[in-house]
Write a sequence for this structure.
């Protein structure tokens, strides 16, 4: 039996006096998991699932075959795994995508983090986290799922029967709605939040079940690629589909006290001379629309420059410019290419490791 | 009470000023004496000394050696002296992701008799508590403690005297462990990083796996 | 907090890295009796459509029999469906229509009279009159 918290006697035997005990996740009862011993990983079996989709059935699903070739997946990637990646249902006997999703999530988070940590080592942690979300958050993965042409299986059994739709078509569609949800009459412009959706509601925005399902399917497809073709091919796939997207990093910063932050940063970097903001040029104060150019200097080094229609604006812009050019720095290797990431072949550590953010 | 002049000779043109450096309990507006701020509650002074780095250097040995600067950064937590010194946040971001990935691959790599496997990999294990906890914070914290890796850490707690968990030592130790993995991955590449986890974290006498098994199955190990 | 983050989603750049054909489904509708469907019936009979479908593997073709003029509906990944009339067209003309629309992005066509359309900043930067030496600046 598995307990949710550390047993008191065990804690004491280790010399731990735990007041706020660490929460160990308990096993999901709905999956009816069985295993021999706790760390005999091969023996785990979720008995709620009876079988995987046979390959011969999967081959007869035109939507599945089309998706397989649209994504340019290797022939080693079996159609049954692809179909499993699209299944989120727990109760229809077919194995769902939970495991593939977990695997895909781990692969994605590693390769996305690695990419960002090496390419932008100085990103402040809040920006780094948002950038990770920007590349692999549910919204982005939802969009990617749509781009891949994944369709939701939203017709009921009755609809399918009446339209004489082949039963195989649904194996190539995203299955997350229960038969009851499919049958609900939809009013345009009105969306009733499911219990899962209302949990994610902040102000007027929420994470829709559909977005979650799409994201899960995309992660599972990546997980499936790993099981069939190994990590190198998966890395390439992630690079092609996820890391190739444009990341609007410079739009993600919101500074509250930029000048103070820059002063602290100069302090942290042990700059010998103090930060000074100087006026570089101006159109003349009596000109119709006066423009000023200010620069943030450390001794004779210019850290940043900004243009503004008042001196204060120019000063602030120069400071923000200095901060941005520090935070968005991207290291190069000895040949002038972007620094290699640790998972690359012949990796040599040539980049830098972020020193941590400054506090105000 | 001391009044000293700070600023290097080259910078003195700008910075020559007399400042009172405060010792003892925190007073708003007073600058802390660096001598005191750079010393942990256990009396270790923040520096690249052999004494500070010996625990993790001994653990890494030559095969996974990292530079002294990086080693000191691994040991420094954000909470230490207001985050003025290089600290381990970015390193642990890398390390925790690598650990999660490695353990997800590790639990699925063995042979299985589950007929619902995907290409020989049993994915049913992935949602189980043990699969989640292998790279969990508690496991890493306990591992760091049993290997004496967290003997010297530069961090601050609101109550150092409180327990392993309550004082935050578990979290900080875990973050230090992730940072250590991250530092090895940064210095030697991902493959060596994974080899490091396999050899040092799973292969040692108190392996991460044993700790997790005991953690997850709580009561069975208490007798 | 020194700096706050603003959440933004990354922007897709189809063709950089991987390319996904935007058209994912083509529905063809024909009538077994009407004369306007002759061309499409011909295509279906001779198997030329099968050949086309096997060339465009990433697209899911479905054929429906329904009374009325024949149509071809193209489903794109931006949630748009474009329906094209193919009544009274010759088989080759129908194939040309399918070929053309299966390569579209699903966005409406628009007139564009500039040399470059880009989401990136200019590599040259913006010219500034204030960064020339004082002696070269424009004098009023």
């Amino acid at each position: 039996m598995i307990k949710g918290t550390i047993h008191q006697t065990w804690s004491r035997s280790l010399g731990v006096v735990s007041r706020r005990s660490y929460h160990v996740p308990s096993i999901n009862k709905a999956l009816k998991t069985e295993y021999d011993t706790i760390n005999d990983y091969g023996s785990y079996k979720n008995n709620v699932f009876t079988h995987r989709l046979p390959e011969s059935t999967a081959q007869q699903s035109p939507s599945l075959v089309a998706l397989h070739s649209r994504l340019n997946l290797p022939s080693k990637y079996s159609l049954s795994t692809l179909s499993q990646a699209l299944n989120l249902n727990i109760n229809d006997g077919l194995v769902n995508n939970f495991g593939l999703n977990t695997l895909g999530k781990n692969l994605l988070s590693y390769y996305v983090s690695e990419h960002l940590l090496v390419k932008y080592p100085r990103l402040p942690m809040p920006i780094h986290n948002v950038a990770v979300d920007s590349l692999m958050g549910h919204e982005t993965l939802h969009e990617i799922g749509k781009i891949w042409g994944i369709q939701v299986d939203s017709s009921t059994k009755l609809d399918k029967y009446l339209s004489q739709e082949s039963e195989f078509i649904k194996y190539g569609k995203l299955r997350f709605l229960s038969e009851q949800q499919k049958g609900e009459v939809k009013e345009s412009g009105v969306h009733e939040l499911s219990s899962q959706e209302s949990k994610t509601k902040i102000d007027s925005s929420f994470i829709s079940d559909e977005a979650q399902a799409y994201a899960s399917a995309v992660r599972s497809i990546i997980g499936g690629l790993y099981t069939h073709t190994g990590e190198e091919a998966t890395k390439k796939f992630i690079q092609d589909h996820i890391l190739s997207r444009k990341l609007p990093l410079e739009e993600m910063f919101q500074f509250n006290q930029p000048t103070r932050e820059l002063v602290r940063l100069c302090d942290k970097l042990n700059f010998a001379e103090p930060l000074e903001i100087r006026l570089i040029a101006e159109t003349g104060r009596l000109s119709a629309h006066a423009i000023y150019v200010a620069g943030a200097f450390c001794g004779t080094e210019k850290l940043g420059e900004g243009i503004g229609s008042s001196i204060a604006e120019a000063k602030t812009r120069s400071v923000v410019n200095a901060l941005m050019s520090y935070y968005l720095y991207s290291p190069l290797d000895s040949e002038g290419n972007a620094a290699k990431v640790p998972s690359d072949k012949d990796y040599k550590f040539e980049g830098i490791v972020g020193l941590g953010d400054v506090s105000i | 009470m001391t009044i000293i002049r700070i600023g290097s000779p080259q910078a003195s043109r700008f910075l020559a000023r007399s400042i009172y450096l405060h010792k003892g309990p925190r007073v708003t507006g007073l600058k802390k004496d660096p001598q005191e701020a750079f010393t942990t509650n256990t009396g270790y002074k923040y520096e690249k000394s052999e004494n500070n780095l010996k625990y993790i250097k001994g653990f890494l040995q030559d095969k996974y050696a990292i530079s002294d600067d990086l080693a000191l950064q691994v040991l420094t937590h954000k909470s230490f002296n207001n985050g003025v010194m290089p600290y381990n946040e970015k390193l642990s971001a890398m390390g925790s992701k690598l650990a999660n990935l490695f353990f997800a691959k590790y639990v699925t790599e063995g042979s299985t008799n589950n007929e619902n496997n995907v290409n020989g990999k049993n994915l049913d294990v992935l949602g189980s508590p043990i699969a989640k906890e292998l790279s969990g914070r508690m496991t890493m914290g306990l591992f760091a403690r049993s290997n004496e890796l967290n003997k010297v850490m530069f961090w601050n707690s609101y109550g150092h005297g409180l327990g392993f968990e309550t004082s935050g030592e578990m979290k900080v130790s875990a973050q230090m462990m992730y940072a250590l993995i991250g530092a090895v991955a940064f210095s030697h590449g991902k493959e060596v990083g994974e080899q490091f986890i396999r050899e040092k974290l799973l292969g040692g006498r108190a392996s991460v796996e044993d700790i997790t098994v005991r953690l997850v199955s709580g009561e069975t190990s208490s007798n | 907090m020194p700096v706050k983050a603003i959440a933004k989603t990354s922007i897709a750049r189809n063709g950089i890295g991987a390319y996904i054909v935007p058209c994912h489904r083509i529905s063809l509708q024909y009538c077994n009796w009407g004369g306007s469907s002759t061309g499409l019936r011909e295509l279906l009979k001779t198997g030329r459509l099968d050949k086309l479908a096997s060339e465009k593997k990433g697209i899911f073709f479905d054929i429906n029999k329904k009374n009325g003029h024949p149509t071809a509906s193209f489903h794109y990944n931006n949630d748009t469906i474009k329906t094209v009339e193919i009544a009274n067209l010759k088989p080759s003309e129908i194939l040309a229509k399918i070929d053309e629309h299966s390569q579209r992005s699903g966005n409406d066509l628009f007139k564009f009279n500039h040399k470059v359309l880009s989401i990136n900043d200019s590599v040259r930067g913006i010219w500034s009159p204030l960064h020339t030496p004082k002696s070269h600046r424009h004098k009023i």
